[in-house]
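Researcher: We're reviewing a set of sequences before deciding which ones to prioritize for further study. For each one, I'd like a predicted 3D structure that I can look through quickly. This is Tat pathway signal sequence. If possible, include the structure in token form so it fits the rest of the review sheet.
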Amino acid sequence: MDIVEYQDVKFNGTIEHQSIYKGEPNPELDNAWDALVFGTKLTAISAEAVEKLGKSVQPSLVKFMDEDGGGYMTTMEVTHQLHCLNLLRKSTYYDYYKSMADPLLRSSPDQYRLHLNHCIDILRQQLMCTADAGLITYQWVKGYERPYPDFSTWHKCRAIDKLWEWNEEHAVHVPWSRIKRVEQGMDLEEAP
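Model: Here's the predicted structure for Tat pathway signal sequence, in token form for your review sheet.
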């Protein structure tokens, strides 16, 4: 996408750092994660844009109905990656979240493990793809026998707010009940 902007950001890597995204489960924390994971919208792209992604337009590709604006259904990958990270976070508090209405944690143990392994590998691939070559320095800290890493480092980050703005501006506001297989559509034999 040509809408990517960058900004310099210093990560707060201190262990004691308080963040709305970490800590014991609580409603505020869950709301913050839900806003990241469920806040993005479906978008539509043209057949040409599909081909620019290295994919081919085929009958199994989900297309919005013409009366809803047409185009092929997409979501931003960051949404899936954040979903996976959130699933890993929830799995560290498995007993707490299993008692809630989270369908993923209430699935069969085999299905849950399959999903968890998928998420771990997606995040591994993403981290290796964007391999951060930044350097971590070390300090001598009173009370520690070994050098202590300083994880508060500078990064050139994609401006996530700009991505969210683009997503909102290009959102397709179609209820899931209107997303249907078209007559001439054909299902893939296996999931991609």
